[in-house]
Amino acid sequence: MILGVEKVKKSFDGFVAINGVSFSLKKGEICSIIGPNGAGKTTLFNLITGHLPIDEGKLIFKDEDITNRRPYQICRLGIGRSFQRTNIFPRLTVYQNIQAAVLVHRGKSFTFLRPVDFFFQQETEEILERVGLNEYAGTVSGSLSYGFQKQLELGIALASEPELLLLDEPTAGMSAQETHHTMELIGKITREKGLTLLFTEHDMEVVFSISQRIMVLHQGRLIAEGDPGEIRRNPEVQKVYLGEGR
Question: In this structure, how many other beta carbons lie within 10 angstroms of the beta carbon of residue 177?
Fold first, then answer.
């Protein structure tokens, strides 16, 4: 087990957003969490990565209790994260975005007293190659298409050398072609680097094509868990989610 989520709860002003969720991930698994809007998927990701404090329950990563650790501490332990909205530096080039992420992970920082252009050049270029952005290295990030910005964000997440990668709706807002390309890229990187992947996604074609295991969240509760075939056949899942025109 690489990640254990044990009876985790989170409320906001009396509203229960996450209600006793428990699950575990095995090293190397590709798992997804699906559910209607407002089910609590992003909140759960924020709890796992330390962006929100947990009210009750426990998080275990590689046999270590990480409950309510700070985001940077969790990241350094080996959990990478992307967000629903792109989280890049739009005025920096693609290369500088990746390089900055590598510098932070290695405990370095930008300074006016010494040039950093050649710091971790090889590592930066390897990540750019891996996410398919090497030819855009000198491009200002804010001018990239949305799909390429999401690829850049994936590269930034990889710069922290994660063992567990959490992707929050990695194809949201993408065209069908961008979606297909992005998921192929994510699957390839996950397999090549031996990562464990947990992602949320509304595109059911994406979910069922790549997931080894699917968990279904509804009103803050985990109502089903299984392989794609089991989830498709589950009556409760069909009622609360898959039956919604999907």
Answer: 9
